């Protein structure tokens, strides 16, 4: 049962909106773009609003007589409609009435959820109610419509801003130069087992946590193991020494420096085994995570107790995470297993977008897809290739990375000077053949590594 004061305020907001729509039908389109039928509690005002909505969307005129006739109402309903018009002096403030109604309707639904929680008979039922509450607590901007003129005015405004846009960086300049990642994007990192995808994700998470609130949802690696890998990465201490608790004074000093910097960040490790996609989104909203990293997507559970195939669960998980990214402005990084590669002439083929295991939905939902694989399929100590297989806002391509498994750290691969010289030499020869001139060439290899951070 609603609080009496809240109930009265809800009624006032509903009356003002309906009255505005009846005294000035030019505002009906704006109202329908800002509130929905769900914002009106059950009752006569909900029925009146629904009738006007249906009349307007079907192209029919909306006035008191037509509304009353469509509802087949009598004298009592006619008096209610007349009262809405009489207490609303002007439709000029209708958008403010809409804002008030949206806010009050969320509060009333939260109260209803609170009452339902007191009678929940299982954790599963309670969890679903909490997820609904978290969704209501997030302030959504609602439907945004911009005409052609508004789009162009906004474009010129953005282009004239002195401050350049800041995109989310991975720490590897060749990757960052191709991608323009922002909050609200969904990124996939696909790799076969033992390629280093968790280490890659942890390294990125540590970097992002210095600026963003990061939630690392692990369905495979517990908190202690994640901490061991992070300390190895950040301090350059061999993971084997950490596992055996065998440190030199110099290592302890490096660990102290690295851990103190990392501890100032906004990183949270969530042991997510048995969590569903809905559970992950609910937790992310309650913890206000700006970056959500899921390791890995094929291990995410079903949101109900019904038995579903792996394909169905992964498909639903991808859709839920993608919707959360767009709706709530979260950067979602979904790690994924890749299917076993096909072979040609006895050698495995390079992975592509179809390699994402279990579901084609993943490749559809991603804004950026990174495929991580061994440069030499037979050498796990060798370099890795980070292939950008999908990129909605930039270029695709491949970036070679060295992976030091001893300290669980990725770095840009050192350029092959001989190969670089040969390639540059061929280009120079081609230019000289065209111009007829031969000149001495100077080559300066560029690594493009980010020197600002220790990882």
From TrEMBL:
SUPFAM superfamilies from the UniProt entry: N-terminal domain of DnaB helicase (SSF48024), P-loop containing nucleoside triphosphate hydrolases (SSF52540)
InterPro entries (UniProt xref): DNA_heli_DnaB-like_N_sf, DNA_helicase_DnaB-like_C, DNA_helicase_DnaB-like_N, DNA_helicase_N/primase_C, P-loop_NTPase
Recorded GO MF terms: 5'-3' DNA helicase activity; ATP binding; DNA binding; hydrolase activity
Region (Disordered): 421-455
Protein's GO biological process: DNA replication
Pfam families: DnaB, DnaB_C
Reactions the enzyme catalyzes: ATP + H2O = ADP + phosphate + H(+)
Top-level lineage group: Bacteria
Keywords: ATP-binding, DNA replication, DNA-binding, Helicase, Hydrolase, Isomerase, Nucleotide-binding
EC number: 5.6.2.3
GO cellular component term, pick one: cytosol
Low complexity bias: start-end ranges: 431-442
Domain (SF4 helicase): residue spans on this chain: 161-417
Family: Belongs to the helicase family. DnaB subfamily.
Protein name: DNA 5'-3' helicase
Organism, as annotated: Candidatus Avoscillospira avistercoris
């Amino acid at each position: 049962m609603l609080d009496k004061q809240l109930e009265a305020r809800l009624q006032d907001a509903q009356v003002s909106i309906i009255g505005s729509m009846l005294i000035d039908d030019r505002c009906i389109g704006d109202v329908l773009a800002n509130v929905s039928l769900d914002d009106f509690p059950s009752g006569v005002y909900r029925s009146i609003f629904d009738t006007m909505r249906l009349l307007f969307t079907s192209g029919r005129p909306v006035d008191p007589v037509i509304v009353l006739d469509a509802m087949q109402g009598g004298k009592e309903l006619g008096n209610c409609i007349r009262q809405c018009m009489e207490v609303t002096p002007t439709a000029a403030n209708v958008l403010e009435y809409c804002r008030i109604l949206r806010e009050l309707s969320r509060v009333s639904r939260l109260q209803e959820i609170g009452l339902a929680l007191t009678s929940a008979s299982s954790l599963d039922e309670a969890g679903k109610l909490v997820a609904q509450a978290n969704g209501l607590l997030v302030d959504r901007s609602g439907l945004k419509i911009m005409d052609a003129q508004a789009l162009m005015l906004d474009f010129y405004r953005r282009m004239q801003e002195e401050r350049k846009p800041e995109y989310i960086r991975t720490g590897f300049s060749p990757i960052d130069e191709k991608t323009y990642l922002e909050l609200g994007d969904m990124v996939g990192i696909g790799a076969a087992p033992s390629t280093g995808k968790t280490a890659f994700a942890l390294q990125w998470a540590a970097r992002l946590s210095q600026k963003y609130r990061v939630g690392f949802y692990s369905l495979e690696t517990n908190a202690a193991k994640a901490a061991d890998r992070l300390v190895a990465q950040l301090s350059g201490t061999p993971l084997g020494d950490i596992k055996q608790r065998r440190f030199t004074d110099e290592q302890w000093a490096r660990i102290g420096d690295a851990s103190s910097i990392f501890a100032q960040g906004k990183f949270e490790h969530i042991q997510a085994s048995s969590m569903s996609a809905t559970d992950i989104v609910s937790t992310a909203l309650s913890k206000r995570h700006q970056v959500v990293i899921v390791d890995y997507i094929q291990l995410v559970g079903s949101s109900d107790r019904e038995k579903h195939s792996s394909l169905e669960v992964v498909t639903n998980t991808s859709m839920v995470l993608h919707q959360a990214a767009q709706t709530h402005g979260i950067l979602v990084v979904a790690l994924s297993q890749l299917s076993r590669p096909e072979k040609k002439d006895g050698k495995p083929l390079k992975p592509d977008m179809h390699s994402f295991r279990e579901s084609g939905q993943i490749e559809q939902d991603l804004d950026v897809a990174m495929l991580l694989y061994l440069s030499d399929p037979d050498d796990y100590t060798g370099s890795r290739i980070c292939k950008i297989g999908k990129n909605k806002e930039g270029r695709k391509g491949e970036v070679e990375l060295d992976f030091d498994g001893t300290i669980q750290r990725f770095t840009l691969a050192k350029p092959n000077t001989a190969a670089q010289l040969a390639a540059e030499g061929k280009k120079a020869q081609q230019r000289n053949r065209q111009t007829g001139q031969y000149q001495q060439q100077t080559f300066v290899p560029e690594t493009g590594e980010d020197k600002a951070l220790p990882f």
